[in-house]
Amino acid sequence: MEKQKSIIQSYVLAYNNFDVAGMCENLHEEVVFENISAGEVNLRTDGLQAFREQAEKAKVYFAEREQQIEEWEFVGEWVKISIAYRAVLAVDFSDNMQKGDTLEMKGESEFTFKNGKLILIRDKS
User: I need a surface site. Which of 33, 61, 96, 124 has the fewest CB within 10 A?
Assistant: First the structure.
């Protein structure tokens, strides 16, 4: 449990710092990433290289971003965190979400481990 917690904290810190190499440090080669919004998968990557490419592309959307972990749940190789998310947009997203606007929301991330590495990351908002 402590090793899983340490890996997830390291991943979140790297995310907050736009550090893609740090985000990928503890990912399994076959990692799957899913972003789910309103119950629909709107982004999925398969494999470490696809994750890395998507993470690099996503960096340009935000001037600042921060996930704060509020709660933890551990069940074997599966971990869920509840997060408070805050970001400042670096680009216009829509007429309602413009560059410089602050985005704040609550969400959760689920992580599954395989051989001590993250094999599945599922972000839900």
Answer: 96
Q: How many whole angstroms separate alpha carbon 32 and alpha carbon 53?
A: 13
| Beta bridge partner(s), residue 69 | 83
Q: Cβ–Cβ contacts within 10 Å for residue 102, how many?
A: 11
For the chain, the structural domain boundaries read: 2-124
Query: What single letter denotes the amino acid at residue 106?
Result: K
CA nearest to 58, candidates 9, 105, 18: 18
pLDDT tens-place string over residues 54-82: 999 999 999 999 999 999 999 999 999 99
Q: What is the token pair recorded at 93?
A: 């997203």
User: What single-letter DSSP state applies at residue 59?
Assistant: G
The model's pTM: 0.93
- CA–CA distance from 6 to each of 36, 43, 50, 78 (Å)? 24, 26, 24, 14
